[in-house]
Amino acid sequence: MDPSGLERLDQRIAGCRACPRLVGWREEVARVKRAAFADWTYWGRPVPGFGPPDARLLIVGLAPAAHGGNRTGRMFTGDRSGDVLYRALYDVGLASQATATHLGDGLELYGVRVTSPVHCAPPANKPTPGERDTCRPWLVRELRLLRPTVRAALVLGAFGWQAALPAFAEAGWTVPRPRPAFAHGARVTLDAADGPGLHLVGCFHVSQRNTFTGRLTPDMLRDVLRMAAEAAGLPARK
Ligand code: SF4
């Protein structure tokens, strides 16, 4: 594949202003800031995907967090959800370090790319259906560029699952009707007429609401990561 194609796409995403409400929100958050991050210059723009252009495994969230990705400019970086996700990726051997704090912190992902169906932080972490649909073409383009190598996707949460399925269909995989239901540990394979299929694995979102309450434990997250890595043909540490 053409790595520069994905880099160009990421640059274009970072300049998008298609959703007025989200542009206003992300920029206001960047201006007002949270007291703990008063000395930061917030990113305040759409957050592109993160990870190598020849990734075999995709991790799909929903949208960046206001003081996480919207502050640091990298998916799941600088918030509690990311602390849990990158710790687990490190534990199973898919990340170079357990922490993700800022661009340039040295974090590398091994065969994994992290992205989302909505690239701007939404108020209350909830994009509208219209914003979700407006942002979908970015994910479709990303998926098309990754198709030569990507073999599995771990989708975090029911909202991400519902938002991502139409993008998988538009990118060339066949999504069964009725659409497969989300569940933690759910597995479904999307066939493609003109290439390899894509193994989908569902996982509860790594939100604080799930991780603080024990609905999603580190063991559960490591287990589904290993499952998804195996489906993708990536070696994962036991
Ligand atoms: S959510 Fe997506 S489509 Fe909307 S402004 Fe952000 S990057 Fe653009």
Notes on the structure:
The structure is a single chain. By secondary structure, this protein is an alpha/beta fold. 39% of the residues lie in helices and 13% in strands. The chain has eight helices and six strands. The protein has helices at residues 3-14, 20-32, 69-72, 80-91, 129-146, 158-170, 208-212, 218-232; strands at 57-60, 112-115, 152-156, 173-174, 187-192, 195-203. It has a six-stranded mixed beta sheet with strand order 2-1-3-6-5-4, with helices on both faces. It starts with a helix and ends in a 6-residue tail after the last helix. Bound molecules: iron/sulfur cluster. Residues 13, 16-19, 22-23, 46, 118-120, 131, 134-135, 138 line the site of iron/sulfur cluster.
What would a concise description of this structure say?
The chain is α/β, with parallel strands linked by helices. It has helices at residues 3-14, 20-32, 69-72, 80-91, 129-146, 158-170, 208-212, 218-232; strands at 57-60, 112-115, 152-156, 173-174, 187-192, 195-203. Helices cover 39% and strands 13% of the residues.
What is the helix fraction of residues, given as a range? Answer: 25-40%
Q: Biggest sheet, strands in spatial order? A: 2-1-3-6-5-4
Bound ligand species: iron/sulfur cluster
Q: Radius of gyration in whole Å, from Cα?
A: 17 Å
Total helical elements: 8
The average pLDDT is 97
Share of residues in strands? 5-15%
Largest sheet: 6 strands, mixed
Span between termini: 30 Å
- State the shape: globular
Query: How many beta-strand elements?
Result: 6
Low-confidence stretches: none
Category from helices, strands and their pairing? alpha/beta
The helix-strand sequence is: HHEHHEHEHEEEHH
